[in-house]
Amino acid sequence: MSKGGNIYCTVADMKNAVSELKTLIDGEKITEEQVTAWVVKSDTLIDSYCASRYKVPFVSVPPVIKTLSIELTTFFYFRDQAQSKNEREKIWARVRDLLEGIRSGEQKLIDANGDPVAMDTTQADTPSSNRMNVDPVFNMKDAVDQSLTPSDYD
């Protein structure tokens, strides 16, 4: 979730997605604050995967990001309520695969209008080195005369 306070799904979204969650919230067995805490965990994880390619938090939330937020929030709900490990593993595998695809660029993000979400070019993975501004100088000596000087270690 985000620095700007955006959340990708709401408590109402969660009530619609998981009927038993609606029953528990309405019956005051789970608070809306608990659900919001799961959403924050979910959105933070989503942002961490997407940050290498996109500007996060998303101001306009792509539908797949909302779906991922609902899925992850459901995962955290199941985990905290000691629900079926098998179901949790299925959810996590599905979400992880999609997030990995987004991070690698194999899965493109589409906004609510069906247009591709622009990648954040300032976040692109760029190789770097602490020796970027050094002109390499190569002096070859005979194999028996080659040695390292203290400046070679810097």
What is the arithmetic mean of pLDDT?
A: 79
- Total domains, how many? 1
List low-confidence stretches. Answer: none
The tally of beta strands, per DSSP, is: 0
Word description of this protein:
With 154 residues, this protein is an all-alpha fold. It has one domain (11-123). It is built from five helices and no strands. Helix 3 (32-50) packs across helix 4 and helix 4 (63-80) packs antiparallel against helix 5 (85-104). The longest helix has 20 residues, at 85-104. The mean pLDDT is 79.
Short description:
With 154 residues, the chain is mainly α. It has helices spanning 11-17, 19-26, 32-50, 63-80, 85-104. It has one domain (11-123).
Secondary structure: elements and pairs:
Layout: H1 11-17, H2 19-26, H3 32-50, H4 63-80, H5 85-104
Helix pairs in contact: 1-2, 3-4, 4-5
Core attributes:
5 helices; 154 residues; mainly alpha
